[in-house]
Amino acid sequence: MFGMPDEDVLVEMGKTLGFDLSRRDAALFAPVIHDALRQLDGFVQSRAEEPAPPLLHKARDPGYRPGPAEDVYQAWLWKCSIGGGAGLLAGKTVSFKDHISVAGIPQVFTSQPMEGFVPNIDATIVTRVLAEGGRVVGKNMMNGFLGDYGRPLNPHDRRRITGGSSSGSGAALAAREVDISFGGDQGGSIRLPAAYCGVVGLKPSFGLVSHFGAGFGFEQSVDHVGPMARTVEDVARALEATAGYDELDPRQRRGIPDRLDVLSGLDGGVKGLKIGILEEGFADPIEPGVKQGVLDAIGVLERLGAEVVRISLPEHAQIDAAYAALVFEGTKAIHDTGFSGAGARTYYPTTTIVAIERMWREHADMMQPRTKLNLLLAELSRRNWHGAVYARAHNVRAGIIAAFDRALAQVDVLALPTVRNIAPFAESPPSDPAEAVEANIRRNWMLMPTGANTKPTNYTGHPALAVPCGKVEGMPISLQLVGRFLDDALLLRVAQAYSQAVDWESFTGVA
What we know:
Layout: H1 7-16, H2 23-45, E1 76-83, E2 93-97, H3 124-131, E3 135-140, H4 167-174, E4 180-185, H5 191-197, E5 200-203, E6 224-229, H6 232-242, E7 274-278, H7 288-303, E8 307-311, H8 320-337, H9 350-362, H10 369-385, H11 388-395, H12 397-410, E9 413-417, H13 433-442, H14 455-460, E10 464-472, E11 475-482, H15 488-501, H16 504-507
Parallel strand pairs: 2-3, 2-4, 7-8, 7-9
Antiparallel strand pairs: 1-3, 4-6, 5-6, 5-10, 9-11, 10-11
């Protein structure tokens, strides 16, 4: 039952909305508000039909949470077995980052207050994986809203981080516990764990892979979902199986094809292609071993017949301010509008929206300090500039996209390090509470250089692929390939040629 506000509640509520009500005014508002609330309650309680998206393999194993002996790298939140059969993904095991809904399988967004929530829909990528014969085997850990389930361990060195936020996906793949995993990438969150764990990770062209059923915790216009795997071919298969227009995803724009042919040209090689070494991608701070390893990988492509040139794109190093301006207010907009956004004519996953809304409203104080910082900055940005910051961050994007397009008119692919360092050692939180809060705030995504080479293509929407290219101090390093919009298949073709020319097994995963 909903609550009927009295005059005092209405007066206080008005203050939070920026206007003053006297108790006398509130008494005039109250009867009308009560009638409207009764009408809304009647609608919520009605049995009006809500046609849901299709659900394949309706008879589902409920699965289980694996124990420490089975989950040695803390990569899994839940394990299950759904589907399997004929298709592009026949014989492949597939997992999903926990922000992606799989009907009948618990989804906690790595946050304790969400315990017990079970979605009743499949994300579009889940439906498409099942339709192509993939067997869904579980949900992977992620950097969540509250971060209550510990951190995944890097299989190459358990003392080091796996990268966020698709951290469990990276660890599970590197440990050879799954063939393909779908992660989410808002500023590098597929490519960073791919780089630190020695696997392949694709942030597709914006909108190419449907985002329906993948939770928004961030600015929608930089958010992507995409495949990760130990082999280029598995990423290519996963992309071909899931890419294409989806009427349930309002973010997709005109020009998204119904399907994408990736596999037919995968072994086409690189002869005749022009690869541009993106100079700004090698800027300091960069570890010497990473720089040399990536240049050596580009050298392999040159020996295979590609023409290699150097190219400068100053905008690559200038995106941070616009990106930050966008995501602070964009994150708060999602927070305020109920997690799936508002305004689009599509299906809204009611149960997920309600569960997240309750968590945010009833357990907001449990959010990580860096999340609170983002919301505070967003509120101050809105109060000080009245929406101009967010609007400008969107409006200047066209010029930056054009700069990337001009660079990609000169070359077929841009090449640079995915990240400029090897996976750092995990830091133990300080024992002093105040110091622990400060340390968490300092690890805010906006204040760290880690995503300097990954955030730009989240902002522009160009496809970007992380490719293992060696090891330094026993830890993986990664080459990033960036391509033209919807030219994702070409990136995979280049990566496939590279993978076949090197000792790939020594670069990827662990024995």
